[in-house]
Amino acid sequence: NNRHKVSPGAGEHPLQYNYTFWFSRRTPSRPSSSQSYEQNIRQIGTVASVEQFWRFYSHLIRPGDLSGHSDFHLFKEGIKPMWEDECNRGGGKWIIRLRKGLASRFWENMILAMVGEQFMVGEEICGAVVSVRFQEDILSIWNRTSNDQTTTSRIRDTLRRVLNLPSNTIMEYKTHNDSLR
Amino acid sequence: GTRIIYDRKFLLECRSSPVAK
Predict the structure, then answer these.
(1) Cβ of A14 and B4 within 8 Å?
(2) Best of B2, B10, B15 to disrupt the A interface by mutation (most A CBs within 10 Å)?
């Protein structure tokens, strides 16, 4: 299946991992079961280099300009942005709630830190999500092992640094198990 | 193995470099 593998172009700067962009939008009429979640989420493209990342990202609408109940997901290639994925099952996520108006800038800084390998937690990072909601927006970053406190603390501290979060920003860690309940 | 690490400044510079366009 390597035929379709995305790889860096000549002269481009490779990323440590390939990443896939996904988009989902909740249609109000459907229940939010995991089946309808899977139906509502679409892969929109995979990037393997810094240059491919920018070409792709620059064509996307900014999260702050989205309306309604929508999410962008950027996950390592091969990992679905779902709790049920093998890589996410034992994992969790850091959540940051943002007042309206901040999502575009914070999302960009968070995914730049991710694709640039700023978190220094080995293979732990799975992906990142920005969730656009009516009253607020939510950023989250998912990792594989929810009970590894060294890892989760390091992710939290890196997020604080790269997003330049005020020290009173509330960050919440949720295991995917909690979310499933 | 070696990790490929880029800081934000470098990534933003790549955005405006000719190969990215």
Answers:
(1) yes
(2) B15
